[in-house]
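Example 3.2
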Amino acid sequence: MAKKSSIEKNERRRKLAKQFAAHRLRLKAIARDRSKPMEERFAATLKLATLPRNGSPTRIRNRCEVTGRPRAYYRKLKMSRIALRELGSKGLIPGLLKSSW
């Protein structure tokens, strides 16, 4: 099980990224647009830099929904390989057969 503080920190990052997504997208579009004047693009870049760092989606870490483990994460199932194996052995994941011999 991961530390509660790490899991909570990641949840705060998700919330901030969702909150600032539209604003960040608008500023990035202005900064990338070559048809706009250089001053306007530079101003958009400066405004982008003032946004909170944790509001960026690249700061979000994929973590297991069950245990909070950050590594060996299956995106489709949103869980780690260890949690997948345990739940699969118990028969709690439909369509998953764990072979053992």
